[in-house]
From TrEMBL:
Membrane topology: Single-pass membrane protein
Intracellular or extracellular location(s): Membrane
Protein name as it appears in the record: Sec-independent translocase
InterPro entries, alphabetized: TatA/B/E (IPR003369)
The keyword Endoplasmic reticulum belongs to this UniProt entry's keyword annotation: no
Keyword line: Membrane, Protein transport, Translocation, Transmembrane, Transmembrane helix, Transport
Region (Disordered): 82-109
Length: 109
């Protein structure tokens, strides 16, 4: 999630020991864990309230879909995949026969 390696995690633990001391570190860690649980509960409540407020039409709504990358991938790239699965599109006949010039309106230019 945070892309923290073993060496970086060790460095963070050593820094926490230096800053808070070995006797205060468990207290600080428990407070941080409690705050994280409360934050998750608040986020889940907000998400549920949003879904309830939007109604049954948006039952499959996911807040993560509001991320621009995910939005583009879901709404544009999936449509392209669907078109690829349908196979090549049939060739359309040209609107003008070969060699015929399109109509020209001198007043339009």
């Amino acid at each position: 999630m945070f892309d923290v390696g073993l060496g970086e995690a060790l460095l963070l633990v050593v820094l926490a020991l230096i800053i808070f001391g070995p006797d205060q570190l468990p207290k600080v860690a428990s407070q941080a864990g409690r705050a994280l649980r409360q934050l998750r509960a608040m986020a889940n409540t907000a998400r549920d309230d949003l879904r309830e407020g939007l109604g049954p039409e948006f039952a499959d709504f996911d807040v993560a879909d509001l991320n621009p990358r995910r939005f583009v991938r879901k709404h544009l790239l999936e449509e392209l995949d669907d078109l690829d699965q349908q196979g090549p599109m049939p060739a359309e006949e040209p609107l003008l026969p070969f060699g015929e010039r399109p109509p020209f309106d001198p007043e339009a230019t």
